[in-house]
Amino acid sequence: MCAFMHSSVQQGRPGVPKLVPVVTRSFWYRAVRDPDDRSRLVLVMRAGERIDRILGNEWIHTQFGRNGEFKPLDGNLPTRVRWHKDAKLDEDSPLTTLGRHSAVLIARALYKRQIRPSLIVSSPALRAVQTANAIAQFLHTTFVVEEGLCEPGHWYTQGGKFPLPRFLTTKEMKSCHFAVNGN
């Protein structure tokens, strides 16, 4: 889906390398040309772009008003939010607008190639849930959350402890109208 431009070094004049632009693309869709192959496709993807990676860890102090209401000052932040009031956004960052849009583009590419996942599995991290939700809603299906798909606990080391972020429960996700299957 993405095209990346890089240079290939070839021999130009004697002793002088010549840079030749080469375009490379993701060709994952070629693997599913045969309809029988679609049933065997396993697509693994990362979550979309997250707010704390763009605005830094202090984003939460600059994007919320004194009363705790979300007041986005950056054009890449969502204007409408879907997270639970008890979410710990400083520990479990949500997607940017671009991150959500990227997930919808992936869903659209799957749809155009007539690929309908029989199962969408997500990490409990909010950014992954939002990515899975965008894809599931576009494809008119649901997703499930697998608790074991989060980062290793030592990534969250603080003072010798391993405090994993407080992830949303399935009930809280449903209250935010996520397309999560709670079974």
Automatic annotation (TrEMBL):
Q: Give the originating organism.
A: Toxocara canis (Canine roundworm)
**Name the UniProt record assigns to this protein:** Protein UBASH3A-like protein
Q: Name one GO molecular function term.
A: phosphatase activity
What Gene3D superfamilies would the database entry show? Answer: Phosphoglycerate mutase-like
**CDD domains listed in its UniProt record:** HP_PGM_like
PANTHER family under this entry? PHOSPHOGLYCERATE MUTASE FAMILY PROTEIN, UBIQUITIN-ASSOCIATED AND SH3 DOMAIN-CONTAINING BA-RELATED
The major lineage groups are: Eukaryota, Metazoa, Ecdysozoa, Nematoda, Chromadorea
Enumerate the transmembrane spans.
none
Q: Name one Pfam family in it.
A: His_Phos_1
Q: Quote the InterPro entries the UniProt record gives.
A: His_Pase_superF_clade-1, His_PPase_superfam, Phosphatase_SH3-domain
Source species, domain of life: Eukaryota
